[in-house]
Amino acid sequence: MLPSLQQTAGAANVILGAPMTGAEDFSYFEQKVPGLDVFLGGMPKGGDPKNTPSNHSADFFIDESVFPLGVKTLCNLTLDYMAEKTK
Description:
Blueprint: H1 2-9, H2 26-29, H3 67-85
C-alpha cells in the first residue's frame, strides 16, 4: 500500500515507522485480512514525529485540516487494494 500512500499524500510526506508492539489486538484480525496502521494529523505542522505524543496521551494534538487527506487516503487505499485483488 506504500505506493498508494505516496501518491495520495506525496512521497515526502510519508514516513515509514519502525515496527512496534502495543496492546492492540489488530494482529489477530490481520492473520485473516491484511491491514496496516496509518497515523494522520497527530502533530502540529512542522513537528517532529519522533517527539510527538501518542493518541493515548493527554497531549495528543489533532490537526483537523488533514481530515480531507485522511478520507482521500482511505478511499485510495481501498480502491487500490480492490483493484489489486481483481487482477
